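Let us work through a complete example step by step.
Step 1: write down the sequence.
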Amino acid sequence: MAYVDGFVLPLPKKNLAAYKVMAKKASKIWMDHGAVEYRETVGEDMSATFCMPMTKLSKCKPSETVVFAWIVYKSKKHRDAVNKKVMKDPRMNQMIAPGEKMPFDCKKMGYGGFEVIVEG
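Step 2: predict the structure and record it as tokens.
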């Protein structure tokens, strides 16, 4: 079974292009260091009526949408080894151009490590 790091964050819609640039850089770094899969998705249909929409769950403002992202690893041990390499990678310091700020509020980002219990 695999291991997954998951992320959910509200993103100002006006910052989507900047976020996409940053996410592409992150994807390359994680994949270069051995991640099995890297996905970043942006909310497109947030109109759920049968449960709580992710926009409400993540306390999005009307000007924001939700990013739902995950990175897949072979195991938790593999995740720890990959992330150790990623954090030492000098490209991590180049994610945002000098003078620019993060395209989202890091304090609003949710994160967790998940053990896969079902694969389809």
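Step 3: interpret the result. The chain has three helices and four strands.
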